[in-house]
Design goal:
Blueprint: H1 12-22, E1 27-31, H2 57-60, H3 64-81, H4 88-94, E2 100-103, H5 109-113, E3 118-120, E4 123-130, E5 136-138, H6 139-149, H7 153-156, E6 188-192, H8 201-217, E7 220-224, H9 231-242, E8 247-250, E9 263-265, H10 269-277
Parallel strand pairs: 1-2, 1-7, 2-3, 7-8, 8-9
Antiparallel strand pairs: 4-5, 4-6
Helix pairs in contact: 4-10, 8-9
């Protein structure tokens, strides 16, 4: 990391210096919810975002009422999220020769944009897993079952606000019917990491390996659209900074990793990535 003070985060100098640092060197990119806002999916902690309390794993498995509340909200949110399309930022990343892209997002937009070297750290909302037999099925199939079991529910609550977890802001969930696993009758859960769960160790190991390799290759870690509030992403910034690997953070608003970064750029994610991918 540079020994001189970086330019102010909002200055043109920080923007230009970050692009110059990142070009023509190996990159690992960590993305967060801020990257998907241009696709119409709200983020967690961006400027003006309301406080949110996602359901924890412990609450989800605590009883049928909690699962009813989760699936009612998620059913409506999924109807909207699955229509989201990759934006210019997602597409720009597919043109870069990345060592690895690590995403904290569960929306699947990187995959739909054609990203190849990818670790979906928290899983994908498009998949469903049975907590008993561990069978994994497509969310689209469950969506059809939920629609059949709850006719008119989506139309009745069409005005509910979409949230970044792929659900909506809704309290009236009484009476919502939640199907069980067709294979064993077990409880179904989206195949994503809830608060209170751990990221599967093989995913973490692959990400650490890619971040560690940057120190030997002269590479850099680029963080885009994440406040780094949760440790699942912040640990990679700490790892890179400890190895003196350059870290660039692009985010609207302060992040937990700003003090560890070589450059902090408060700028739009899509615009920055498009500029990075543009030939000189």
């Amino acid at each position: 990391m540079t020994s001189t003070a970086p330019p102010p985060a909002t200055s043109p100098e920080a923007y230009d210096a970050s692009l110059a640092l990142l070009r023509d060197r190996p990159l690992v990119v960590l993305t967060g919810a801020g990257l998907s806002t241009d696709s119409g999916i709200p983020d967690y902690r961006g400027p003006g975002s309301p406080n949110r309390t996602p359901m924890t794993y412990q609450e989800f498995v605590s009883g049928p009422e909690a699962r009813q509340r989760y699936w009612a909200r998620s059913h409506l949110g999924w109807s909207r999220m699955r229509r989201a399309e990759p934006n210019d930022g997602h597409r720009a990343l597919t043109t870069l020769d990345l060592d690895l892209l690590i995403t904290q997002n569960v929306d699947g937009l990187h995959e739909r944009a054609g990203q190849q070297r990818l670790v979906a750290l928290h899983g994908r909302i498009a998949d469903v897993v049975c907590l008993s037999c561990r069978a994994t099925t497509a969310r689209a199939a469950l969506h059809d079952r939920l629609s059949e079991a709850n006719p008119g529910y989506a139309e009745e609550h069409a005005a509910a606000e979409t949230r970044p977890d792929g659900d909506v802001d809704l309290d009236d969930t009484a009476g919502f019917v939640v199907p069980d696993c067709t294979a064993c009758g077990g409880l179904l859960k989206p195949d994503v990491v809830f608060f209170g769960e751990n990221v599967p160790p093989p995913r973490v190991a692959r990400c650490y390996e890619a971040v560690d390799a940057l120190a030997d290759s002269g590479g850099a870690l680029l963080v885009v659209g994440s406040s780094l509030t949760v440790m699942s992403g912040f640990r990679f910034v700490r790892r890179a900074a400890k190895a003196r690997t350059p870290v660039v953070i692009v985010n609207r608003g302060a992040t937990r990793g700003d003090d560890l970064a070589t450059y902090v750029v408060q700028h739009g994610c899509s615009e920055f990535l498009t500029a990075l991918a543009r030939p000189l």
